[in-house]
Design brief:
By secondary structure, the chain is mainly β. It has 2 domains: 41 residues, Ubiquitin Ligase Nedd4, Chain: W (Single Sheet); 123 residues, Alpha-Beta Complex (Nucleoside Triphosphate Pyrophosphohydrolase), CATH 3.90.79.10. It is built from 2 helices and 11 strands; from the N terminus they run ββββββββαβββα. The strands form 3 sheets. It has a 4-stranded mixed β-sheet with strand order 8-4-10-9. Strands 5, 6, 7 and 11 form a 4-stranded antiparallel β-sheet that branches. Strands 1-2-3 form a 3-stranded antiparallel β-sheet, with no helix packed on it. β1 and β2 form a beta hairpin. The longest helix has 13 residues. The mean pLDDT is 94.
Length: 167
């Protein structure tokens, strides 16, 4: 069964949206009671980077919810029409003041019940001076042996760091 939605009215005609099973084997979806428009609640895409620097890995401490005060690698949401790798580069610059180039994909992470799909890349630092951006409290380089595992913000952060370190 679909999760309760904050969307109640059709964006086309304004009639009520109702949960309906449109095809056997698929989840229930929001459909307009007036015009029949199907309202797909697509996942939100986040693009992130693992940045090796000075023998360690760059992490930032979040200044926003969710995960306020917890550590994560730089990243954020991809804007509509933006290339995923370009979003990872932009978010890294915004959060760390580091200019980076994407080198390789680590993996893609998604979890049942969570609308966010996380794409994680390894990025090479090209320039800039490491410092906290406007959505971060702190930016630091952690040696692999000193990563703050209990203080990581999200399951994808932990999984991606472990995947990266296993390489």
């Amino acid at each position: 069964m679909a999760q309760p939605s904050e969307f109640r009215f059709c964006p086309r005609c304004g009639a009520a949206l109702l949960l309906r099973r449109l095809k056997p084997g698929e989840p229930e979806r929001l459909a307009c009671s007036g015009c029949g428009c199907i309202f797909f609640q697509d996942p939100k895409l986040a693009a992130c980077t693992i940045c090796p620097l000075d023998g360690g890995i760059v992490l930032v401490r979040r200044a926003i919810e969710p995960g306020y005060g917890k550590w994560v690698f730089p990243g954020g949401y991809v804007d509509r029409g933006e290339a995923v790798a370009a979003a990872a580069i932009r978010e890294t610059l915004e959060e760390t003041s580091l200019e980076v180039a994407i080198r390789e994909l680590v993996n893609v992470y998604s979890y049942p019940g969570n609308a966010v799909v996380v794409v994680v890349y390894v990025a090479q630092v090209l320039g800039g001076q490491l410092r906290a951006g406007d959505e971060t409290l702190e930016a630091r380089v952690f040696p692999p042996a000193a990563l703050p595992w209990p203080e990581l913000a999200f399951p994808s952060t932990e999984e991606a760091l472990r995947d990266y370190l296993r390489r």
